[in-house]
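Slack export, channel: ligand-projects

TW: morning all. Re-posting the request from yesterday since it got buried. We need the structure predicted with the small molecule present, not the apo form. The ligand is zinc ion; the SMILES is in the block with the sequence. No rush, but it would help planning for next week.
GE: picking it up
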Amino acid sequence: MGSLAQQEKTVVGWAARDASGHLSPYTYTVRKTGPEDVVVKVMYCGICHTDIHQAKNHLGASKYPMVPGHEVVGEVVEVGPEVTKHSVGDVVGVGVIVGCCRECRPCKANVEQYCNKRIWSYNDVYTDGRPTQGGFASTMVVDQKFVVKIPAGLAPEQAAPLLCAGVTVYSPLKHFGLMAPGLRGGILGLGGVGHMGVKVAKAMGHHVTVISSSNKKRAEAMDDLGADAYLVSSDGDAMAAAADSLDYIIDTVPVHHPMEPYLSLLKLDGKLVLLGVIGEPLSFVSPMVMLGRKAITGSFIGSMDETAEVLQFCVDKGLTSQIEVVKMGYVNQALERLERNDVRYRFVVDVAGSNVEAAEAETNGAAA
Ligand SMILES: NC(=O)C1=CN([C@@H]2O[C@H](COP(=O)(O)OP(=O)(O)OC[C@H]3O[C@@H](n4cnc5c(N)ncnc54)[C@H](OP(=O)(O)O)[C@@H]3O)[C@@H](O)[C@H]2O)C=CC1
Ligand SMILES: O=C/C=C/c1ccc(O)c(O)c1
Ligand SMILES: [Zn+2]
Ligand SMILES: [Zn+2]
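GE: finished. pasting the full C-alpha cell output, ligand included:
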C-alpha cells in the first residue's frame, strides 16, 4: 500500500444518468494526486443554467453518468509535490475549465478558455482517459493552473457564483473596452449571470438598463441591485422609446429569441454580446447591424487571470452575489425552479453541509 496520495479516492457526487437531468447519488473514483494536482474538499457549488443544458442534453453531447457543477468553492486538503500556487487549508475555487494544451495561441496569450483542447470540468474526458466530474460532489482533483485562491473578504458561498457568472460578465466588458465609467449598458435576462452583470456594470460606473421578459423583477432590480432603468421586452412603446440608447447589451437569455428588438436599442458602434448557450440559429436582417455599425459577438467565461481579477474586483467594490443556499437533497427542486425562472438569483448548494450519500427523499428540503 502506498500513501494516501498514491491512491485513487472514492467520491460521492450527484449525477444525472440520462436526459431527464435528474440527479442522484453516484459513487466513483478520482485520480491519484498528480505532481501538480490540488485535492479540493468541496464546500459550496453554484447552480448555473449550463448545468441544466448539460444534464438535459440540450446540446446533444452529454455523457452519463454526469456530475454537474462548475462554480465550486472548497478547501485544499492535499497537494501534489510540485504544487506552488496553493497550500493545504487554502479556500479555493474551480470553474468551467480544468485543462488546456498550454501550447496554442490562446493558451500562450493566457486566454486558455479559448483553447480548442480545453477540458471541461464535467462531461469531458481528462488526459488519463477518465471522465471529468464536477462540483456537486465531496471532492475534486484539479490541476493547480485551474484552481484560484478565494481572496479574504469573500464568503465562500458568495464567491461560488463569481467563478462562472461573475467572470462571464467581467471578461467581455474588459475585453471589448467597456469598462469606462458613464457607459450605458443593457443586461438582457435577469438571472444568475444577468444579476452579476448589473452589479459588475454598476460598480464600473455604468448606467444600467435591465431588459426582462416580465415586470416581476422590476422593484428588486431597481431597489436591490441598483439598476437605473427597467424595460419589459414585450412593451413595444417602452422599447421604442429606448431605441438607440445603449453602448452594449449583455444577452444572457438561455433560449432562442429574436435579435432585432435588442439591436434596435444599441447606439452607433454598440455591441451585443451573446452569452446564452442556444443550439438553434439566431437571425436578423443585415441593415439592423449595418445602419449603425453594430457588432454582434459572443464571449465564453473568462481566463484564470480574469477569474482572479473579478474576485478581487468584487472584494474591492464590496460586491457579493445574491444567492439562495440549499442542501444537496434539494438540488433537483432547485434545478426545476431555475428552469422555470424562479430563483433570486443563484442557487448555491451547501455541499459540505449536506449528506451527499443520502437519497433525496431523506434530505429533501431547502436549507437556510
Ligand atoms: N457564455 C458563457 O461563458 C456562459 C454562458 N452561460 C449561459 O448563459 C445563459 C444564462 O445562464 P444563467 O444566468 O445561469 O441562467 P438563468 O436561468 O439564471 O437566467 C436566465 C434569464 O434569462 C431570462 N429568460 C428569458 N426567457 C427565458 C426562458 N424561456 N427560460 C429561462 N430564462 C429565460 C430570465 O430573465 P428575465 O426574467 O429577466 O426575463 C432568466 O432569469 C445559459 O444559457 C447559460 O448556459 C452561463 C455561464 C457562462
Ligand atoms: O456556464 C458555463 C459554460 C458555458 C458554455 C458556453 C458554451 C458552450 O458550448 C457550453 O457547452 C457551455
Ligand atoms: Zn456556468
Ligand atoms: Zn491551448
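GE: first-pass observations. Residues 304-317 form the longest helix (14 residues). Residues 362-368 have pLDDT under 50 and may be disordered.
TW: perfect, thank you
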